[in-house]
Each structure stands twice: as structure tokens, then as C-alpha cells.
Amino acid sequence: MDHQKFAEEWIKAWNSHNLDIIFSHYSDDIEIVTPMIKLATGGKESSLKGKSAVRGYWKAALEKYPDLHFELIKSTEGVDSVALFYKSIMDKHAMEVMFFNEDGKINKMYAHYD
Predict the structure, then answer these.
(1) Comparing C-alpha atoms, which of 9, 43, 45, 41 is closest to residue 25?
(2) For tag attachment on the chain, is the N or C end more exposed, with fewer CB atoms within 10 Å?
(3) Would the pTM count as exceeding 0.85?
(4) DSSP state of 91
(5) Residue 13: Cβ within 10 Å count
(6) Which residues, in sequence order, are bridge partners of residue 32?
(7) How many CB atoms lie within 10 A of CB 54?
(8) C-alpha to C-alpha distance for 92 and 43, rounded to whole angstroms
(9) How many CB atoms lie within 10 A of CB 72?
């Protein structure tokens, strides 16, 4: 995998605000772990599993932040994984570590923010 090309495509997908384009990178059994879930929902959960659950969360987030725009700072490659460092919403920096299944789709993602 060309991690830099992937990173650019992933950032472009998010900046499009089009959930179908965004979800083209993810498997049906995607699991995300991020502190933003608690922030966005006011709940206690910090993880979601499955496209349906994640789609609802991301749809609400895109509606809450209509000017969402990510800027890639750096991408790195691991074993069946990439880590993206980028400028996120609310002037935060984010690091997302994404793991890929055998079909090349993200099936697990961990997000970290400053």
C-alpha cells in the first residue's frame, strides 16, 4: 500500500463531507475508538462497531461541524496499518491509527487528539 496516496485520498474523502465516499475506505464490521464519541454524544461510550452505528455518529458529526476540514501533516506505514497525523476540527491535532483487513478496508481505527 502507498500510505501517502491513501492518506491523501482519505483526507479528500472527509473534506468532501460525502458519507458514501468516506465509507468506501471502511469494512462493514468497522470498529472505531475515539474520545470524540463521548464529546459528541455526551455519553460514556468511546467506541462504536459496525457501519450502521458509525454512520449515525459520523452523520451527526458532519452536521454539527459543517465546516469540517482536515489537513494532512504526516502519514506513516505499519504492518497492515497506517497512522495519519492531521489538523482536525476545533484546531486540534489528531493521530489516527487504522488497521486493514485482507480486502484492504479499514476494520479498526483508534483516534488520539491533543
Answers:
(1) 9
(2) C
(3) yes
(4) G
(5) 18
(6) 48, 109
(7) 21
(8) 21
(9) 15
How does DSSP assign 3-17, residue by residue?
Answer: HHHHHHHHHHHHHHT
DSSP designation for 104: S
Amino acid, res. 2: D
Q: Give the C-alpha separation, 76 to 94, whole Å.
A: 14
Burial class (CB in 10 A: 0-12, 13-18, 19+), 97: middle
C-alpha triplet 58, 5, 81: angle, nearest 5°: 65
> CA-based angle 53:57:62, to the nearest 5?
145
- Would you state the cell numbers that stand for residue 37, as one nine-digit string? 464519541
